[in-house]
Amino acid sequence: MAPSYLNTYTTIGNREGLTDVVADLFADDTPLMAMVKKVKAIATKHEWQVDNLASASGTGIVEGANIGYSKTTVRVRRMNYCHIRLRNWDVTFTQMAVTVAGIKDDIAREVMKALKSLGTDYEKIFCNTGTTAVGNTTTARTAMGILKAIKTNTGYGSEGADPQSPGQLGEDVVNARLQDVWDAGGDPRVLLCGGYQKRVISKKFSAKTGFTFNIEASTRQAIANINKYEGAFGTVDIVPDRHAQRRRIAILTPEQIKIAVLRDIQQFKGAPTASTLKGWCEAEMTLQFGNEKAHAEQYLLSYSGSIA
Hints:
- It is a single chain.
- The protein is built from 6 helices and 14 strands.
- By secondary structure, it is an alpha+beta fold.
- The strands form 4 sheets. Strands 5-14-11-6-10-9 form a 6-stranded mixed β-sheet. Strands 1-12-13-4 form a 4-stranded mixed β-sheet.
- It is flat.
């Protein structure tokens, strides 16, 4: 027997319970791009010069000796091609006319999301992308990321282990890479890593940094985090980046790195080919990584499992 009272199961006039809130979850931070300066690119092939001092020598010179002139080290050109990225949107006129919960303007929101997405695209490119390429009319130009640019100061896993077997990150290998950069004349100030490697550093690197992890009685606050690490060759900021490769860390000298911009991020309106409003955001830029000897990387690292 059906109930005689009015209830929500049978009443058809109740309004939907849609709140006027949109729960945004935007992983739109770009640590690498935020820490470096922008410079102007004037061509699709962006070039710069690097130079190094000759190795130090203590050889004595005979008094009155004739000078034998030798060839000095010469500057070397480095390059990276500009990388084009775009993000588009397409909203119907009808969608623009209806009442929408949680937002005021669908177009404005699509533009906002496109701009944020473009920023994270370039963060991923500059962290990870492989070999730079000139491209052609059917193949896109590509930029080289910082990890691919580092050739000299590199190491495997936990050092000493089989290069084919991943190893867990440790202080010894971080200090070895810091020394590599220091020996080359660099001044590293940032360790860029993914989430798991940040956990490893916060848990394993406590013994020699003077940190004590406990619960502060007055605030009931547990502290188990390291944002700076003072190694044998200087202090580096520990910067987690969602777009860093899980198996690798990069140790960087930020002053050497620039974002070279040929076309900064711009918004464009698409042609009216349908009953919609179209548009896109587009940019063209590349990474100027400076002298690659000013940076280092450790790769083939473990990126899951317990931290010991």
